[in-house]
Amino acid sequence: MHIGCPKEIKPQEFRVGMTPSAVQEAVAHGHTVTIETNAGAGAGFTDEDYTAAGASIAAKAEDIFAAADMIVKVKEPQAVERKMLREGQLLFTYLHLAPDPEQTKDLLASGATCIAYETVTDARGGLPLLAPMSEVAGRLAPQVGAYTLQKANGGRGVLLGGVPGVGPGKVLVVGGGVVGTHAAKIAAGMGADVTVLDRSLPRLRYLDDVFGGTFKTSYASAANTIELAREADLIIGAVLVPGAAAPKLIKRDQLKELKPGAVLVDVAIDQGGCFETSKATTHQDPIYEVDGVMHYCVANMPGAVARTSTIALGNATMPFMIALANKGWKKACADDKHLLNGLNVHAGQLTYAAVGEALGIETVDPASLL
Question: How far apart are CA 40 and CA 262, in angstroms?
Fold first, then answer.
């Protein structure tokens, strides 16, 4: 198979879809790989690194989209990239279609087969291609939250760890999954007073057993959420409904109940955000204010630490990419029901129910396409 990896063009996105290690693996399996020139520069990989691994270098994205059987990316294809997709081509990347009707419409019109990293599953019920980026985003969230809390950035002027004689900042993490767990670990490590909310009692028990002395846990009822939010200096939204639009946990009219200068970091912004006032921002201009509350809603947080993120993502995607290249999407998905769960679009049909529900589009059962 001819695998193509274009340079990411979303603003402030420095990651790249394939590492030189992934190229070497694909070439060892008999595949051809083409990388767009400077695609890996933001993550510290040179064109020479890729050619040494066995790739050829293309001068522009158009050459890659025209020639490749499979396109491997990081972020969802932008409008100009979607126009270059063609019938029968395979796209393997993050899609986040539920809050994005325009992208969904274009992918359906392209006739391409699109497999989304964020809906591929594993035997334990996890999301193995989302997990590494969730780990990165979770660990970044307290860091960017602490920065936003600084007075010069519009925040309350609170130091999360406090100092002797001055209590620590209060951090509320809403969602106890991968993002929330990593956010809570880092925030607690910074010395903050941390509480994690979740609706799953087994998950709360697990967190309490493993991290009992590190941070507190509480049940995520609507009343409990707003009660704890009123006391918080930093609120991290870490709720995920796989493939679907994120639920809105704090409404616009509730912002006035929060402390002036409190900070909301919305890690769920890729799926539409879990605060009603969230709107996607970039690393270039990450922070905005609504009703005296600061919002940090960067849609590609892991892009800030592009080298770590690219290597972590590549470790996770490589086995699936090789399976798709070795077998073709149909046999690879027939052999692996977890990879089949990643199928979102095929030949003008939507194949992921949660996206169809969010956008009001009829879906087909992906198994029926095999």
Answer: 37
